[in-house]
Amino acid sequence: xxxxxxxxxxxxxxxxxxxxxxxxxxxxxxxxxxxxxxxxxxxxxxxxxxxxxxxxxxxxxxxxxxxxxxxxxxxxxxxxxxxxxxxxxxxxxxxxxxxxxxxxxxxxxxxxxxxxxxxxxxxxxxxxxxxxxxxxxxxxxxxxxxxxxxxxxxxxxxxxxxxxxxxxxxxxxxxxxxxxxxxxxxxxxxxxxxxxxxxxxxxxxxxxxxxxxxxxxxxxxxxxxxxxxxxxxxxxxxxxxxxxxxxxxxxxxxxxxxxxxxxxxxxxxxxxxxxxxxx
Length: 279
What we know:
Helices cover 70% and strands 3% of the residues. Strand 1 (91-94) and strand 2 (98-100) form a beta hairpin. By secondary structure, the chain is an all-alpha fold. Helix 2 runs parallel beside helix 10 (235-257) and helix 6 (131-140) packs antiparallel against helix 7. The chain has a two-stranded antiparallel sheet. It is built from 11 helices and 2 strands, in the order H-H-H-H-E-E-H-H-H-H-H-H-H. It folds into 2 domains: 11-136 and 232-278, no CATH class; 144-220, no CATH class.
């Protein structure tokens, strides 16, 4: 998935990481609190696609992410379609086991939309915020600095690990080692030759990182830590965060005490019935 940081000067890029965390939390809670696909589609369009548009993220990143998700989405759709506890079966694919119903279609659409929302929300968060700013935001939200630096090193080490693996693979190919087997077992055994060199290099890198951290006095005077870059909430951050809190409270109220369409499949099923009749 395309989660590399994309530099920019858009409004979404300039928001404080803590404001973006509030947006992320709001979208996540709303996506798992409601069932109706029509509501989830609205949440995806206005809660995720609008930030993507505002942040001006490259279209190729979006398409690349979507293309990689297609096999997973198809499998996800069919599993949810046929293994949903149907109330009215239209026809049986396997009598008594696999049946087709409009409720199953609505449930599968709901599962896919929720999956889309979660994946693209994470993508937008990582694409518009540098990793170290995310970690600093978490630290300012009372996350222990030790956990913050561990997360920062972990996220920052991923591209380094990918480059290391590619280098080792090129070195193995230069020695005549093959990786392009069609047989999955042989392919797995071929890739196992990357395991030991990658593990040894990772341990060596981890040792150097630990020595570097200690040499900078990370464990000294932990009560008076300072940061190279300080975060400060601006007016736009307060407005954005307040809007997210209001949206979250509104969604919780609707989900628990309010509109029936938000937490049932009834309206989507009615829409599908109308659609199939028209078709």
